[in-house]
Specification:
Blueprint lengths: L1 E5 L5 H10 L3 E5 L3 H8 L10 H11 L2 E4 L7 E4 L15 H10 L8 E4 L7 H11 L10 E4 L9 H7 L2 E5 L2 H11 L7 E5 H32 L3 H8 L22 H8 L5 H11 L1 H12 L9 E5 L14 H9 L4 E5 L10 H5 L4 E4 L11 H7 L4 E4 L14 E4 L7
Parallel strand pairs: 1-2, 1-4, 2-3, 4-5, 5-6, 7-8, 9-10, 9-11, 11-12, 12-13
Antiparallel strand pairs: 6-7
The structure holds ligand SAJ.
Length: 417
């Protein structure tokens, strides 16, 4: 079985190596020459457990190679990014379209094409299918097409690719059957056959569900600040109910998925998708809310240029991924009034050490839940910060473990508004 995986990013690389590990002959294709040459040397730019070792084995076994051009295969899997268009919120399919066009010279009858990239509902039918029909193929008879959205959590991708359930949305039942056979190669979770448009909307709604739930938690933070109620305690207690699970509030929703996919649904049904849009707006308002509270905490900021230690650029804990990270909006809101020292042990281009980042600082602002930030050296903070104040927007520090001399703010005890 020869498989071409177009797009060697967070999803494309793990998918390619899993097929390669399971005795398929895999070509990982990416337009970026540096990524390709690095992959061929066994170097990986993404931070993901076990991936480097598996890539090395596949390169040694000759089951994986990376190239800048596709080559003739039996299966083509598209794993390229799908951003949204800023002005219309529509799903930008340009990378998917050019990936599909790039395989046209190589495809032949009986081949299978799979779109894994998250796409707006109906895109497989109305945008992708015509690209191949124009070449004279009848989809479902001599070429097979399916949308099989990836649903894995960065940080745990290899594990989830194998064990999560997998949605297989064929354009016809025969397309679904063909794509099912492919994922059976390594998927141990349930394989759910359905239609392409159902797969598309299910995937978008999974991420939308999470966005709406996070927005509810973030809205609750604002309510708590107004009513002077510790909402972190409220969430803890409410979640003891067997059918309640309010997610965690934070400085905003980052990443390339949850902060984007809800717009794909909204753009197609703007009047109907009211809650979806409101949730996006609420989550997008959180960086400003953090900035406003920082200014409350350091309320003499107009007279004194304070140093703030920004802890975390990555959009999620223990990750090196800073795509759509709310930290950038927080930084934008603070940089004119404060001297910012940015510290993130997972992001290579932030080169300050812990000590440099906290020296003479008036506030340590936690924006990412990296494990390193959960075990702070409080003596060091007391000795070297100008004033030992922490604002923990991710609720990773337990107030009961903080020494008396350190002031801790979080979303449960914001300064009086
Ligand atoms: N976040 C909160 N509060 C929470 C949970 C998350 O503020 O309680 C924030 C995080 O800090 C982060 C953002 O949301 O900034 C998203 O992080 P995440 O870890 O929840 O999810 P992603 O974006 O990394 O991955 C999601 C996953 N989708 C769901 O859990 C429904 C993953 O399974 C998808 O495969 C992925 O999107 C994707 O590629 O679509």
């Amino acid at each position: 079985m020869k498989i071409c995986v177009i797009g060697q990013g967070y999803i494309g690389i793990p998918t390619a190596v899993l097929f390669a590990k399971n005795n398929c002959q895999v070509t990982g294709v990416d337009v970026n020459e540096t990524i390709v040459s690095n992959l061929n040397k066994g170097n990986i730019t993404i931070e993901e457990p076990k991936i480097k070792e598996i890539l090395k084995t596949c390169l040694d076994d000759g089951t994986y190679k990376a190239k800048t051009q596709p080559e003739e295969s039996d299966v083509y899997i598209i794993t390229v990014p799908t951003p949204f268009k800023e002005n219309s919120f529509e799903c930008d399919l340009s990378y998917v379209v050019s990936a599909c066009e790039s395989i046209i010279p190589y495809i032949k009858k009986e081949d299978l094409i799979i779109i894994e990239s998250t796409i707006a509902p109906l895109s497989t039918e109305t945008v992708v299918k015509p690209i191949f029909e124009k070449e004279g193929y009848v989809i479902g008879e001599d070429l097979y097409l399916a949308h099989c959205p990836e649903r894995v959590l960065p940080g745990n991708i290899l594990e989830e690719l194998v064990h999560n359930s997998r949605i297989i949305g064929g354009i016809t039942p025969q397309c679904t059957r063909k794509a099912t056979e492919i994922y059976e190669i390594f998927v141990e979770g349930e394989i759910i056959g359905t239609e392409a448009k159902i797969a598309e909307l299910s995937k978008c709604m999974e991420n939308t569900y999470r966005d709406v739930n996070i927005a509810l938690a973030n809205e609750l933070v604002k309510i708590g600040a107004k009513l002077d109620i510790d909402v972190l305690e409220v969430i803890k207690i409410a979640n003891k109910h067997p059918r309640v699970n309010i997610l965690s509030p934070g400085p905003g929703v980052g990443g390339h998925c949850i902060a984007i996919d809800p717009y794909f649904v909204y753009s197609l049904a703007q009047e109907e998708a009211q809650i979806i849009k409101m949730a996006r707006d609420t989550n997008k308002s959180m960086p400003d809310f953090v900035v406003k509270n920082v200014k409350e905490i350091l309320n003499d900021y107009k007279e004194n240029k304070h140093i703030i230690s920004i802890f975390g650029l990555a959009y999620k804990g223990n990750s090196d991924d800073d795509r759509e990270s709310p930290s950038y909006d927080v930084i934008k809101g603070l940089e004119n009034d404060f001297d910012l020292k940015i510290y993130d042990p997972h992001i290579k281009f932030t080169n300050l050490s812990f000590n440099e980042a906290i020296q003479d600082s008036s506030l340590l602002l936690i924006l990412t839940n990296h494990d390193e930030f959960k075990k702070l050296d409080f003596n060091n903070l007391k000795e070297n910060m100008k004033q030992p104040i922490i604002f923990d927007t991710k609720n990773i520090l337990d107030k009961n473990n903080i020494p008396e001399e350190i002031t801790l703010f979080n979303f449960g005890n914001l300064p009086k508004q």
